[in-house]
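Continuing the batch. This is chain 6 of the set; chains 1 through 5 are on the previous pages. Same settings as before, nothing changed between runs. Recording input and output for traceability.
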Amino acid sequence: MTIGSAHPSAATPRRILVADADAVVAGSLADFFRDAGHEAASATATAEVERLLEAQGCAIAFIDASVAGEGLELLRTVGKKHAGVACVVTTSYGSVESAVEALRLGACDYLTKPYVEGELLLSLTRAERHHVLLAEAHAARARLAPRERNGRACPSSGIVLGGDPRMRRVMEMVRAVAPSKTTVLMTGESGTGKSLIARAIHDASARADKPFVELSCGSIPETLLESELFGHVKGAFTGAHTDKAGRFQAAAGGTLFLDEINSATPAMQLKLLRVLQEKRFEPVGSSETREADVRVILASNQPLEELVARGAFRQDLYYRINVVKIEVPALRERPSDVVELAEHFLAKYSAEMRRVIAGFSPEAIAALRAYPFPGNVRELQNIVERACVLAQGQTITLHELPEHVPSNHAAPAAVPPLRIGDDEPWTPMSLEEALREPERRILLRALEANHWNRQKTADQLGVNRTTLYKKMKALGVVPGEPDAMAG
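Output for chain 6:
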């Protein structure tokens, strides 16, 4: 590698660390930076890099992928232990995938060999600027830390951010129920943050120093779910070569969160009912009864009332777990919270990636506000993380959002308008009674227009399936009923 020596002196001398498995390349690049007026050191192995960083520190690190190893572990380590270091990744075999991964892990630039002097100096300038921004961001976080500690609780998920009153009520219920041992049932669509709310209940309880264990019942095959929950002994079934502790045993003294409980089979529901009632269970293949000192929180992404009515969920188990019920609203039902949540995730991921991104462009904000987020808060979180990785500047623009987000401006199909004639005679009644029949007709029209597809109808009406089901039940709307307006 040949790098010219005619380059400008450093305006602000920096300490630079060069890491490359090739000692000649590492030394040559370090000499280049010294000639530019900086202090520079070189290393050829991970252990040497970490030793130099601990002993001397640096402002900028040029790390070659050959040293970082598969997965760029060295870059990840530097980001965690030395947050103020601006890292540039170098490689002989550049690819879009490796560049994206490097930027995701916090690199401020990505260079491929052989080095071109102009590109090298430009990369150094970017790294210097990034180092300054990292220092400013660190100082800003230090100033805000006392304010955050004295302010409202704000877990990393952002589930309590925003001003929507329904989420405020959810967190009020979390605070109220946390000190007790009461079983909690949560309902809501996938991605609304039910597992994070369960964690918040655990963290605010007297069991906070004990294990928090979660299991998604829908992700475990039916034949293995019992073993996952209660454990098994050696020889209990084919493949059971050793004893295994189940989730109830792992959560002893703490909290067990069972997600997608609606997917549990009737046989599993019966066994779960017994554990909740008697606080006892037996591992699969064993006759030894064990105590279950566990606080159980459950969640369903389908209305359990509807499953009970169809005979798909045990009624006795439903009444046993439905002690305290928390309904988590879908993100599209609280659109005013989208921007604040997006900004929260932007701050989270830009800090993790050690990037300084000021915010969203007005066009990006408008696109996020117009998007219905079928994947709820989880989808918004993933969109923002992706945008942080791809951002070219200090603002997230439409170009960093997935293609389907900016293009999603079409409003959902409207329910045909209901006209009430001005000449209809008025019968004295309460407003609630007056609205009952029009609301019933609207539900019927929407359901029939969607061929009684409840999820699609709920989406068009801007409510969740649980709310739609309750409305149907309260208004006496049943499948196949003819439209009262027809004929």
